[in-house]
């Protein structure tokens, strides 16, 4: 019998990558629902779904996500929606007897000034970055939710904490997106308009690590498939989460220069230091994951080229929103 897997958030960037990866296997049966079919913010709907469907595993990729500006403008939405989705899904899955869940989080769970590279044990050892604190707190609660059901009910609920993700199906909104899709869109428009300059938020000095979403999907399935004894042998006491990244970072300036090259923009790069930089550096320690047999395989430049190609192929979706 194939394993019936529910991918929550299958239409998003991460969820769609998981679906692509899992569909390539012959031992799984995927179950997906759009928001119109199943509203994860409504507990009664989630309870009814799990009572009806014989689900074996859950990948919890559904989330309210966005960049610095979106987090600043909509903090209540970010903390409420993410807390509600996690609580509804995890509890309903437990009540339905589902033993395995993989919750997808974010590296923003770690303190703003955590030692670099950040180990899993850095969780809750210092203040968070203020610009995305509501989202980070919701994701920390999700980790602790999984750990609590493991401790009290013997479940096998795991969490993966990826670094900054990018790739096909990303959000290319000009104001509410993350740094890579925002810059790809901005540089694309500047190149088409033969603009002399592109203005970039912040000083360009912060360092970031970026992971292609297809690598993220592969790592997630790898973690979910690990036998319990192997997983527990490589898990620090009381921790259910593991970092997923490349182990390599770059400055925002270097990122912008690479995106300019990928999009064919030949003008000037101007950095607006009056805008917030966010966390000075975010590099994950991925030694635990590498010890469990997985390593990233998509370089940043190759990943950016593939993402830009996807963006160009789907331009019609963005027309009317400033994309040439």
TrEMBL record:
The keyword tRNA-binding does not apply. The lineage of its organism: Bacteria, Pseudomonadati, Pseudomonadota, Gammaproteobacteria, Lysobacterales. InterPro entries: Epimerase_deHydtase (IPR001509), GDP_fucose/colitose_synth (IPR028614), NAD(P)-bd_dom_sf (IPR036291). It catalyses: GDP-beta-L-fucose + NADP(+) = GDP-4-dehydro-alpha-D-rhamnose + NADPH + H(+). The record marks 106, 108 as: Important for catalytic activity. The keyword Transcription does not apply. This is GDP-L-fucose synthase. Pathway: Nucleotide-sugar biosynthesis; GDP-L-fucose biosynthesis via de novo pathway; GDP-L-fucose from GDP-alpha-D-mannose: step 2/2. Substrate binds at residues 186, 201, 208, 277. It comes from Luteimonas soli. NADP(+) binds at residues 9-15, 104-107, 139, 162-165, 178. PANTHER family: GDP-L-FUCOSE SYNTHASE (PTHR43238). Its EC number is 1.1.1.271. The active site is at 135 (proton donor/acceptor). Residues 5-228 form the NAD-dependent epimerase/dehydratase domain.
């Amino acid at each position: 019998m194939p394993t019936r897997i529910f991918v929550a958030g299958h239409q998003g960037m991460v969820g769609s990558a998981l679906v692509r990866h899992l569909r390539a296997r012959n031992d799984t049966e995927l179950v997906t629902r759009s928001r119109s079919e199943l509203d994860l913010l409504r507990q009664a709907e989630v309870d009814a779904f799990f009572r009806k469907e014989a689900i074996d595993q859950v990948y919890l990729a559904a989330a309210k996500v966005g960049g610095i500006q979106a987090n600043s403008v909509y903090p209540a939405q970010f903390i409420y929606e993410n807390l509600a989705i996690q609580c509804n899904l995890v509890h309903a899955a437990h009540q339905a007897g589902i033993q395995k869940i993989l919750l997808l989080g974010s590296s923003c769970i770690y303190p703003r000034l955590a030692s670099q590279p950040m180990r899993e044990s850095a969780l809750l050892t210092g203040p968070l970055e203020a610009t995305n604190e509501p989202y980070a707190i919701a994701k920390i609660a999700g980790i602790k939710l999984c750990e609590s059901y493991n401790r009290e009910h013997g479940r096998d609920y795991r969490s993966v904490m990826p670094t900054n993700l990018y790739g096909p199906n990303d959000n290319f909104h000009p104001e509410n997106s993350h740094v890579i899709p925002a810059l790809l869109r901005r540089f694309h428009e500047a190149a088409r308009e033969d603009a002399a300059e592109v203005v970039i938020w912040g000083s360009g000095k912060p360092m970031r690590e970026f992971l292609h979403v297809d690598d993220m999907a592969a790592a997630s399935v790898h973690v979910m498939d690990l036998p319990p004894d192997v997983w527990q042998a490589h898990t620090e006491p009381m921790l259910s989460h593991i970092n997923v990244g490349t182990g390599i970072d770059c400055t925002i300036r270097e990122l912008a220069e690479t995106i300019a090259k990928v999009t064919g923009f030949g003008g000037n790069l101007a950095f607006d230091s009056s805008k917030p930089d966010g966390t000075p550096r975010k590099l994950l320690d991925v030694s635990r994951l590498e010890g469990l047999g997985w390593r990233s395989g998509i370089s940043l430049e190759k990943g950016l080229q593939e993402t830009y190609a996807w963006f160009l192929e789907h331009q019609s979706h963005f027309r009317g929103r400033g994309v040439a």
